[in-house]
Design brief:
This protein is of the alpha+beta class. The protein has a domain of 134 residues. The chain is built from six helices and six strands, in the order αβββαααβαββα. Strands 3-2-1-6-4-5 form a six-stranded mixed beta sheet. β1 and β2 form a beta hairpin. The radius of gyration is 25 Å and the shape is elongated. The protein starts with 10 loop residues before the first helix and ends with a helix. 8% of the residues are buried. About 4% of the residues have low confidence.
């Protein structure tokens, strides 16, 4: 008896444990898709480049995971000036604007996409700070005013919760851009996929 070797027959237990572990993994994957995840997007705008970094915090996960980072090089001041020109055109309106082909923002497809995004995505935090100036004082004032107005617009879109802080100091002496921002949203990965599919189909139609 003492010299016998006991062989553990674990095949029967494995047959029960394997389906259990597979069920747990499947359940966790479903929760990962359905429960909201937190996405954090950091933005840095300098005189010569724009960089972004995207992080995600899955459900029941203790920390953020870096997902993607990109940098675009170019004349940022010129890009900001183009943004102001578009904004001026929207504010002026008039017969010339009406005679042209309707923009994407005025189409029903665009409005439906924005409506779906508002219902699926919850903005929890938005912050933007720094200094910005263009080569024209009126354009600089318009740019800073538009950035500040975005704070109130998002508050109206997301009135239930969230922290918003936009503070950009205008620079009137010369063209200069140095901004730092952060956006925190909450959305499930399943809804992200749905929105991407809907946006792709809508843009293909319209």
């Amino acid at each position: 008896m003492l010299g016998k070797t006991i062989v553990w027959e674990g095949s029967g237990i494995t047959a029960y444990l394997l389906p259990f572990f597979l069920s747990v993994l499947a359940f966790g994957f479903v929760l990962f898709l359905v429960l909201p995840s937190k996405f954090k997007i950091q933005l840095r705008v300098g005189p010569k480049d724009i960089s972004t970094a995207t992080f995600v915090r899955p459900p029941m996960f203790p920390r953020y995971i870096f997902v993607l980072g990109r940098t675009w090089e170019g004349k940022v001041a010129g890009l900001m000036d183009s943004f102001v020109q578009v904004l001026l055109g929207v504010l002026k309106g008039g017969e010339k604007m009406q005679a042209k082909k309707p923009s994407l923002a005025s189409t029903p497809v665009y409005r439906e996409l924005i409506s779906k995004m508002k219902s699926k995505i919850s903005v929890h935090e938005l912050s933007l700070s720094g200094r910005a100036g263009l080569d024209d004082a009126s354009k600089t004032a318009l740019l800073c005013g538009a950035l500040k107005a975005a704070e109130g617009m998002i508050q109206r879109l997301q009135p239930r919760c969230g922290r918003w802080k936009i503070f950009v100091v205008p620079v009137y002496e010369h063209a200069y851009v140095a901004l730092k921002g952060e956006l925190l949203v909450k959305v499930s990965l399943l809804n992200v996929v749905r929105l991407m599919i809907f946006a792709k189909k809508s843009l293909a139609k319209g």
